Amino acid sequence: MTNYRERLSVPVRWWIIAALLVLTIWLIVAVPAGQPAGLVAGGVCAVLLAALFVRYGGALVEVDAERLRAGKASIEREYLGKVEPLTGEAVRNAFGRDCDPAAYLVLRSYLRGAVRVEITDPHDPAPYWLIATRNPERLAAALTESSVARS
Fold this sequence. Notes:
alpha+beta; 2 domains; four-stranded antiparallel beta sheet; about 45% helix; about 30% strand; DUF3093; DUF3093 domain-containing protein; transmembrane helix; transmembrane; membrane
């Protein structure tokens, strides 16, 4: 059973900007070199951008009864400490000047919220995980709710 699940997909505006970029590449190449060359250049650009957006936006944040998964990493719930939802200026500071270089980060510049999760595993070099999210309160509640239920 999953308590929380979110895919950190890129926003629609990025896809619109990418489409305009592909159109621009097509035009820049097609005018001097011809329509077929423009289609090839635009197609290559479209495929590369789509692959980049799908990969970058494919990061998954998931909380279930046993684990927290964020991006490529996962950790057992027993090693999670204090959970803090962040918004506004607190997010900018957490990912910027207040960030510990040893922390595990799942940063997405297009998301306005984040959650900081303290790691209590003595063998883990990361003091905390900082996870970007669209719903910091819901993610924090999912992490806190299950932690309280286990104790």
